[in-house]
Write a structure and sequence with these properties.
It is a single chain. This protein is of the alpha+beta class and 104 residues long. The protein folds into 2 domains: 45 residues, no CATH class; 58 residues. Helices cover 43% and strands 13% of the residues. The chain has 3 helices and 3 strands. A 3-stranded antiparallel beta sheet has the order 1-2-3, with no helix packed on it. Strand 1 and strand 2 form a beta hairpin. Helix 2 packs across helix 3. It is flat, with a radius of gyration of 17 Å. The protein starts with 17 loop residues before the first strand and ends with a helix. It binds zinc ion (ZN). Zinc ion (ZN) binds next to loops.
């Protein structure tokens, strides 16, 4: 038996351990955080749900990769990629507006 510990990615300190919470349709182990009740699967079949996808999109865009090549490398669809880019951009805009309010 493997004792793989998975930490909660949502809780701020990231120290809360997630516990087993049944299995998905495809038989992968699902985990749940006891504090914030956020669930997570160790390895997603649908690649867009993986945690590092958004960070990879930012890195590839900085490197100058196009939409289709980024989508091909990350194995997600171009539509999903475009939606993610908009979501990421909206996050930056809201961050900037918070900083501007603090400056005033
Ligand atoms: Zn949590």
């Amino acid at each position: 038996m493997t004792s793989k510990t998975i930490k909660c990615f949502r809780c701020v300190d990231g120290k809360n351990l997630m516990v087993k919470n049944g299995k998905t349709k495809s038989g992968n182990q699902r985990y749940i955080c006891k504090i914030c009740h956020k669930t997570k699967v160790a390895t997603y079949i649908y690649k867009a749900w993986n945690q590092d996808v958004n960070q990879n999109i930012i890195e590839f865009t900085k490197e100058g990769l196009g939409i289709r090549s980024t989508a091909r490398i990350l194995e997600i669809s171009t539509t999903t990629l475009l939606k993610r880019i908009i979501t990421i951009a909206k996050g930056f805009i809201s961050l900037l507006s918070v900083k501007e309010k603090r400056m005033k």
